[in-house]
Amino acid sequence: MLESEYGRGTVAAVRLPCITQMRWSNMYRLLIADDEESIREGVADFVRQNCPEWDLAALARDGREALALAREILPDAVLTDITMPHMNGLEFLESLSDLSAGGKAAGAERV
Fold it and tell me: What is the pTM of this model?
């Protein structure tokens, strides 16, 4: 669920699968990108408390920073805000998709 109202902010409900069997290589790496620190940290706290199978690999303040971090850590999943400075979430996802064109295909799903 995603609700957004100008001047009031955005409310998002995200369902992450809680995996019962771990991957052989390690936990699933998650990158969170949001320009609002309270949202970024709130989502990170929720994941830490409720999904121990997910490793919070990186937190980014905008799409440009998220793309640089994604190039380094190669996350398994990304939670991103759409409206961010420097590079919005859609541009970030498109760039991320371009990055993975030669390897494992990346997918983006709107929730």
Answer: 0.70
